[in-house]
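Our preliminary data section would be incomplete without showing what the modeling component actually yields. Below, a chain of 500 amino acids is followed by its predicted structure, encoded as tokens that our downstream tools consume directly.
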Amino acid sequence: MILFNIRHSATTFCAAFLALTSGLPLHAADSATFTLEVRTLTPLSSRHNPDLQIEAELIRPLTQDREILMPAHSRLFGHIRQVRSVGIGLRRERASVEIEFTSWETPAGTHEPLDATPLLIDNAREQVDSHGRIQGILAASNPLGIARGLWFRPGLRLLRTPAGLGGASWAHLALGPAGASGMLGARLLLTRLPDPEIDLPAGTEMTLQVHCAAVKHSWGTLPAPIQPSDSLTDFLAERPTAILKADGNPVADVINVALMGSLNQVQTAFLAAGWSRTDELNGKSFKQTYRAFTQRQGYSEAPVSKLYYQDRLPDLVFQKSLNSIAKRHHVRLWKVGGPAGEEIWLGAATHDVTVGFNSKNFGLLHKIDENVDHERSKLSGDLEFAGATQTTVLLPREFALDAGTQTDRALALMILQAPTPTTQLAQTFLPKAPRMQRFLRRIILEGRQYLFRDNPYYLAFATARKLVRKSEGAFTMAWQEIEALPQVIAPSILPGDISE
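Predicted structure:
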């Protein structure tokens, strides 16, 4: 039995914790921080009761020197420690959920101790704070809040302006309080406040920060990848990598994955891995995108922009998201013929991490993670988790990079197979609050937002705080790079992998 203790100052506590819970001889060893990628099997909500038992399964195996310490699909068990709902918005504006995982099940069926808390939730509108607590959104801080406007001078007039910017506009137009009230009523009827509660369905993917874990060394070794033929390797290495806009300008996307399989195998593999096909860009999808953006919801089939590879639009597009239009995994695939007649699909996989408004076409403009290797790893890991790949191998290549793209240039070749049959996750959704309660909550939350944040003083403070945090992050990163200089020969630590 090996004990991995991440809290360096709490070695004794961690060893005592595991000794009490397992009663087995332990070896205490410090290790660099590592994480686990999991998929929840239990819905999480800020309206759940504390102490609710929760489960998750491991997406990527935990390995060390190719030895499997925690296999994929291992079950993790925990509970909800604390929940805080918004209610009607008088006590708090943000919901929060605090969870922890305390054990995991080995392939032999035994349960071993674990201490892990959330680090981030994939593609979620919710954030995880420094204490591992899942924090909900400020519902009143949304794009439609511009209708409330800003106030500049404190005074009782703020309380007599029922519609913020709308009220001020109507007052200047000499339509008086009645016009302002009409503006408020129209806004309440035509727009909706995003739901401030946390509701994460079963199947939500998150990264856990492991503080302490007991694992058996080991549960087998990773299989060696099947090497493709030299002719296929040379063929893939010679393929162009650039992705272009309609005007011929390059984008940060590059060809970074290749799939070998039929059309049916490709579609089946992605659907089994939880990815979806995208909708066409039309009036209906524009309306759905606008709704998701303003109400801070997800849109699992949101269309993608038109990008070209070798003067061709993609043959297939898949994506994976959760509850935010701003964040999603997606891949564009182009079918090409292999040197021996193989069905090859070249793909550009990228991760949208934020969204903004495009003033040129009045649409949404996504910004991707510049390190496209992260998405390459995500895609291959998802297909492997679904059992849809025989093997995955990284093929080295050399090509020029455009500014703004970070990659080691390798191409991930995946040979597809029929995915492992899985059972549909059971979803349980709690009923929404009554309509009158939601209306009262909206009035309270928007009132608090208008009084305390919709003013230039708070905006200046928030901007300064953001700049300070950004500068602190840059300083910390620079200092970490300086500290790491004498240790450049040490192997890197990747999620789901421990290197000594």
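The chain is about 25% helix and 30% strand. The first helix runs from residue 11 to 22. Preliminary results of this kind motivate Aim 1 of the renewal.
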